Amino acid sequence: MRAQFVMSEIGVGLRRNLTMTFAVIISVALSLALFGGSLLMRDQVSAMKGYWYDKVNVTVYLCNKSDAQDAAEAAEAAKNDAAGSGGGGGGAGKACAKGAVTPEQKQQIEADLKKLDLVQKVTYESSDEAYKHYKERYGQTALASVVTPDQMPDSFRVKLKNPEKYQVITSMFAGRDGVQSVADQSSEVDNLFSLLGTLNWAALGIMMIMLIVALLLIVNTVRVSAFSRRRETGIMRLVGASGFYIQVPFIMEAAVAGLIGAALACVMLGAGQYFVIDHGVDLRHKLELINFIGWDSVLTKLPLVLVVGLLMPSLAAFVALRKYLKV
Questions:
Q1: Which residues in 43-185 belong to E strands, given as ranges?
Q2: What is the rounded distance in angstroms from the CA atom of residue 50 to the CA atom of residue 22?
Q3: Residue 122: beta bridge partners?
Q4: Disulfide: which of 7, 33, 144, 276 matches 268 by Cβ 3.0-4.6 Å?
Q5: Alpha carbon distance 35, 31 (integer Å)
Q6: 276 vs 17: CA distance, rounded Å
Q7: Is 124 left (phi over 0), alpha (psi -120 to 50) or beta?
Q8: d(CA 80, CA 231)
Q9: 10, exposed or middle or buried, with CB in 10 Å at 0-12, 13-18, 19+?
Q10: Per-residue pLDDT of the chain (327 residues; tens, 9 = 90+)
Q11: Quick one: CA dihedral 141, 147, 148, 150, positive or negative?
């Protein structure tokens, strides 16, 4: 098979269907850019999970005098309501109903926390320290002006080896004497990751739609090209050309168009990393709380995008030729 003949046939085919070839290139570029973007989004979510879950703490808030007074008032009010209604109602005891945490309870809670294998570090925060941190974060709000140090509870900040097992701490210490509540930050982080996961699935859905559009365009382009050159292929059959020899130019046309589209997709992915993450918009420095992926993640996806861009149109053209080109 003469390579010069094949290359000339590829050029002729691309020029004859220039508009449709351009549409194929753009469709392939957009679909593969979304494909690569969805892969990078998955890496980004994984990186953020590792970064944020590593910072997630479980906080065991201890009862203070204000909590104990509120609990006593609530219990008295519930008792009066029950007596007034004649229901004799009871119910579960309210947190801190037994009073503020004692030094012995505080020491026992800390000791029990440190005994757990899943606990990496336990840090005690006094009410004064909690008030200071609260003022640093919310000092400009109206509520901050009425909050006093005695309203802030003492707490233990618990760093876990596996943050996803925070339920163990909750089940062991929630409702315990001297414990006001057990709070975990992972629920807020999980909501963020759930949103990111939804966006990733949406990108995959759009990518699939664009991929189907690109495949249909490729099939239609090959069909039109085969029809426009039916006389030439007929002559080639008469002179004994093999089916593979006749099909190669059409397959190569689709492969070239797909490869150009894949190259454009790689340019888009690289431009997004450069102009949106690292420079230009510069999200890496504007959103320092987010651990953005680097160029290593982008570069590892580009060969896959190129391979898919080369194989996908080639296979689509091969299937289309079996139906529309009688060889």
A1: 57-62, 119-125, 155-160, 179-184
A2: 42
A3: 158
A4: 33
A5: 6
A6: 35
A7: beta
A8: 99
A9: buried
A10: 455 555 665 666 566 667 777 888 888 888 888 888 888 888 887 777 766 666 667 888 888 877 666 656 655 665 555 555 444 443 334 567 777 888 888 899 989 888 888 888 888 888 888 888 777 766 666 666 667 777 788 889 888 877 767 778 888 888 888 888 888 766 666 776 677 778 778 777 877 887 788 788 888 777 777 776 667 666 666 666 666 666 777 788 888 888 999 999 999 999 999 998 888 788 888 877 677 888 999 999 999 999 999 998 888 888 877 765 554
A11: negative
Distance CA 155, CA 48 (A): 27
Residues, the chain: 327
What gap in Å lies between CA 206 and CA 208, rounded to an integer?
5
Spatial separation of the C-alpha atoms in residues 148 and 205, rounded to whole Å? 51
Q: What is the pTM of this model?
A: 0.61
CA distances from 224 to 15, 90, 179, 232 (A): 13, 81, 76, 14
Q: What angle do CA 64, 70, 72 make, to 5 degrees?
A: 105
Amino acid making up residue 301: K
- Output helix, strand, coil percentages for the chain, rounded to the nearest 5: 70, 10, 20
The DSSP secondary-structure symbol of 153 reads: P
User: Which single residue is written with the structure tokens 């009871």?
Assistant: 90
